[in-house]
Amino acid sequence: MRGSVRAAGAFAGRVRRAMPRGGLGRSGGLVVLAYHRIDSGGGGLAVSPGEFRAHLEWLEESGLRIVDLGAEPIPPRGMPPQVALTFDDGYRSVAEVAWPELSARNWPASLFVVAGMLDGELRFPWDRSAHDGRAALLDRRALTDLMAEGMHVGSHTMTHRYLPTLSPREVAAELRTSRQALEDLLGRSVTRFSYPMGGWTGAIRGQVRAAGYRIAVTSDRGRNLPGADSLRLRRQPTEPDPEVFALTVEGGFDFLRPVDRSRQLAQRLRRASRSSA
Ligand SMILES: [Zn+2]
Question: Of the N and C termini of the chain, which has fewer Cβ atoms inside 10 Å?
């Protein structure tokens, strides 16, 4: 999948170079970017430090305004779009590599952490080698420091389980316990949420709202226009290749939405059959 996106990107990049800059023009809306790790480890979740800098330089050149999630009304068509940056999972590289670059530019960002994985030792199962420093997650102290420096912190649940396969009671516990744990740790209210693996349903969205969250981000591709539901904001995945990244920000891959949807459905069915096995 990633390979085909990249191949399409290489082709589209050649087309794009032949076109005037600023594909977004005055199309309005809010583009929310989804990052995970910032390191040179490769794999599905990593953007290297060099690629990350290239992304930021492209954003600078584009003149797009970088905004905090939910801080301002979404601009309508006829206005330049805005961009918000988000980081999921709470990798240490966000504090060590990404945040210095962002704070040097005075750009806000949101970090969504798994509240049950902040002891500095735990690793996600998909990060195979626990000894690989790139898999390291922020601990409580580092997270508190990062928040004090200006990073906005939100919840990514307690355990990073795929919510659509849990019972309503389990979903409620994931939402409320993580929010409470983060508020106790950080000493301020936590009203942002990111659905693990983008898994949401209408019922889960309702539970997110009932648990006190005001902003929630999905993994549904696309730009958010005025009137967008703040509890299921769309996000653009961040392809490492700077040229593909630029195209993604400009919505060049939004045509893949039906593919995303069928992939999510397949994922849901796979997980449901596994959990009932
Ligand atoms: Zn995640």
Answer: C
